Amino acid sequence: MKKVLSSFSVVFLMAANVFGQNIPVDPSVKIGTLSNGMKYYIKKNALPEKKVEFRLAVNAGSILEDENQRGLAHFMEHMNFNGTKHFPDNKLVDFLQSIGIKFGQHLNAYTGFDETVYMLPVPLDKPGNLDAGLKVIEDWAFNATLSDEQINKERGVVMEELRLGLGPDKRMMDKYLPKLLYKSQYADRLPIGKKEVIENCKPDVIRKFYKDWYRPDLMAIVVVGDINVEEIEKKIKDNFSKYKNPSNPRERKSFDLPNHKEAQVAIETDPDATGSAVLFAIKDSELYQPDLTVQQYDESIVEGLMNMMLNSRLAELVNAANPPFTYGSVYHGGTYVRTKEAFQASATTKDGDQLNALKVLLEEVERAKRFGFTQSELDRAKEQMLSSYEWAYNNREKNQSGELIDGYVSNFLRQEPIPGITWGYEHIKKVLPAISLTQTNELIKKLVKDDSRVIVLTGPQKDTIKMPTEAMVLNTFNSVKMADLKPYEEKSKVESLVKPFRSEGKITAAETDAKLGTTTWTLSNGAKVTFKKTDFKDDEIVFSAISLGGVSVIPDDDYNKTKFAFDALLEAGLAGLSKTDLSHYLAGKQVSVSSYIGGPAEGISGTSSKKDLKTAMELIYACFTDLNYNPEAFNTYKSKKSAMLSNVNSDPQYYFSNEYSKFINQKNPRFTSLEPTEKDWANTDYKKAYEIYKQKFANAGNFHFYFVGNINEEQLKKEVLQYIASLPSTGKSSAFKDTGYRPLTGEFTKIYKKGKEPKSLVAISYSGEAPYSQKEGIALSALGEVATIKILEKLREEESGIYGGGASGSFSKIPYSAYDFTVNFPCGPENVDKLIKSTMAEIQKFIDKGPEQKDLDKYKEGEYNEYTTSLKDNGFWLQGISQNQLDGSDQYDILNFFDKLQALTVKDLQEVAKKYLTKEKQIAILMPEDGWEKAKNDMSEK
């Protein structure tokens, strides 16, 4: 946190008797440093049970690369998965999959400018897994083999990752980055690197990077999980202390983002850009200093309040008629680099409206700087902040290890404080009441200054759009300072959402299910309420309400007139309150509720803390009985949506998906493009959509409500009787309907051409109608996961042809019974035919012999790993107990699923492969516009 507060904060902090004190470290975290300088963090955390999270944090990233190493920090990250002392060649991923760790989904890593971090979650259900996890971390840190063969094989994979990033955003970034990172080393050290280095560097150059920077004094191992802290500490000391630093270590330099007097302006366009945006940053005068003292911590609290108040004002503008931008945010905080923070603002806009968006952003900042904030704004921000801390404090004993571990990584890499939520909550309760408007108003004046400004405008290049000049951009800054602005006007405070009323509702029947641990009430209006009390989180309740029907029962003509309006309905607000009014009313409450009209059903979904359950019920009641009708709000939504989607078809991947969807749904009159056109909007009937909503939600007797979490039954009963049992009901029942429309089937290959970069996408599908079988559905899903393992092995590891890709299989029951098996992967255009053939060869192996037993075992281990964790998740149970209403599935599937999965055999998977993967297939291919030969040549020149 930058020290920007003046003497008033010193007086405040001295009065609080905390001046000069250091921020404490959470005592539950064991922190130590080995004799070689390697640091470790260890914390016992019981959730998930029998699991541990490892991180290896390396204080070295692309910023430390020599000129001939551009991209090799990231390349080195790849190489740690391609051969270490104890896991040669590609054995590491194979081993980790065998103990239930999925590559990419669980096992991962990232490389940044200043750091490289490896992530490894390990299940502890089998002896030896803990030691194996530590051995993997040890090998990553010190024992990469870096053989010539593996380095040369991995070049293609890294190049495929580089390929994925090509496109209009990259082309524009290459132009504006030198100004955003003006005169800094960072501008020349993007982690993805340079193509010629990746393709041509000698293996010794990678080995040199590893030797120079993967050393004990630049590393930390972080361990959080269901472990014995003393045991882990001993193992770390025994296994990691023996490694030495180089006798003459290279200096680990820090690099600054220099300040500059002149403003740096970048105005960049591209014919294929999919959106318009504006960003400005005002760099701090001094280098970033981490929060080490309580004084600095308290200053960051004031900063957080300022950010919240500014962004609340921007949200009002976004929700107003004729919004100046579709999204906007302002904050003071981190930049691309560690050493510098900045006051920053960004917005997405309509095409050609960037200058106006910049003006509005600057005006809001100037308004706050000139007139300050209001007391009601500050009070609301305090309520929000305290509520967030309180919710985190209430759930402090039920955090998942993965939610905690990144904080300790940040402490090592950036010295961010880790006092723990107990200290944080107790401290903020003391500090917040004393924070004054003077402090927040003084802060923004300190942050907003005239030097070290960077402004970036981006958007599509079109003849119809005239972009502003640099002079116009700079003049906007100057004109705003002289603008005739008025202080922010606070609306009157909303006291209630639902007017008090007396409910006559009753519970007419109750039943319990001992297996599921649920209780179901039938209410006098016909609605049903099922709840399950859990202790997975101490302060969390998740809920939903479902009624069958959805858009499936809407006639084609009405559906086509309303489908783009349903998502806009809540934009009008509830109970006479606008979205802005509602956000103010909900300040300080941990609750969210939304309604929807979907394919087979309509319903409600949301979350709440225990104390805010009443507010959640008020929102549910209002969603049913008092949705606002506001055509102006719909027009605002339409305007924002049109701005966001106006150029989306320029994106090759979106174009590919959209065109293929149109092709296979050509016989479906209910299908239109994924993005609404002007014609679609002109045909949209907001009033009709509102009437359909009101009709569907007028019959609460057709809804089944579900609540899962740390529920007080008496509190729930009180709120259910007051709000749900009093909802109107018509007594009619409904069900979803099969419209009868089907996507195109048959054997065909469709090729689409879009994009200038040498990038292709391939989708191979088998789909159609078939009688539903749960066993076959489970087998198809398993086959998709096993196929993903083989595709990554074959297409990535053996052929170096893809960076990522995979397969998925499923069997759906609604609205009709159908199977689907799809393989997707991105690749170079020159490799499309070869990789399709390789994929089909792998599929044929499944048909002829079935998968290998070891791969099926990997899948089962991975599913067991996820299933045991999910069983302690409220959202998982909410979905599980409500699924039966949607598709008539066995209500006990949530308990029996893994037993059925465990019973799967290689023969079961072979049988579904024979049955469904020998049918007609559909292949869709995206190619660049100029063909792959030219694309290949272009790639060679880049």
TrEMBL record:
Pfam family, one: Peptidase_M16
GO terms for biological process, alphabetical: proteolysis
Residues annotated as signal peptide: 1-20
UniProt xrefs under Gene3D superfamilies: Metalloenzyme, LuxS/M16 peptidase-like (3.30.830.10)
Gene Ontology MF, one: metal ion binding
Domain Peptidase M16 N-terminal: 45-162
InterPro entries, sorted: Metalloenz_LuxS/M16 (IPR011249), Pept_M16_N (IPR011765), Pept_M16_Zn_BS (IPR001431), Peptidase_M16 (IPR050626), Peptidase_M16_C (IPR007863)
Domain of life assignment: Bacteria
Keyword Iron-sulfur: no
Keyword Metal-binding: yes
Similarity comment: family membership: Belongs to the peptidase M16 family.
Protein's UniProt name: Zinc protease
Organism: Chryseobacterium culicis
